[in-house]
Write a structure and sequence with these properties.
This protein has helices at residues 2-6, 11-19, 36-52, 62-102, 109-131. By secondary structure, the protein is mostly helical. It starts with a helix and ends with a helix.
């Protein structure tokens, strides 16, 4: 998980690409599940389930087969995008509060530190969610 979060798995490829142009042989192989054959098998299995589960009231649904086969990663990406968009909205609000804090010298230091920490956390989560 840490390697995926930090993209450290790409380090060797980036170093190689810095020394010479990359070739197709330099690219890592896809996992079997991500290959065209693996994707086809997953979708075909879900589509066959749809065909077997049809009834008089319900026709096979191509959309439902797609959701069953590939929906998990897309819903996860949608959730991460929602967190990212929320953080984008919160950043300017926190910055506005920080400017108001700086213009009022009677405010305690702890309030300013909390605002700075919140601004850092929001930007960190925003960047992390967008890159995953």
């Amino acid at each position: 998980p840490w390697r995926i979060l930090t993209f450290s798995w790409m380090r060797n490829l980036l170093v190689l690409g810095n020394t010479r142009p990359l070739l197709a042989e330099d690219m890592p192989q896809l996992t079997a599940a991500d290959s065209s054959r693996g994707v086809y098998k997953r979708f075909h299995h879900c589509w066959q389930q749809e065909l077997r589960n049809k009834s008089a009231q319900r026709h096979p649904s191509l959309a439902l087969a797609y959701v069953k086969a590939f929906g998990g990663p897309f819903f996860l990406a949608g959730g991460l995008k929602l967190v990212h968009d929320t953080c984008m909205f919160m950043g300017p609000m926190l910055l506005n509060r920080l400017i108001k804090y700086l213009s009022d010298p009677s405010q305690p230091l702890s309030v300013g530190l909390q605002l700075v920490l919140a601004l850092f956390a929001v930007n960190f989560f925003m960047s992390t969610c967008l890159r995953q």
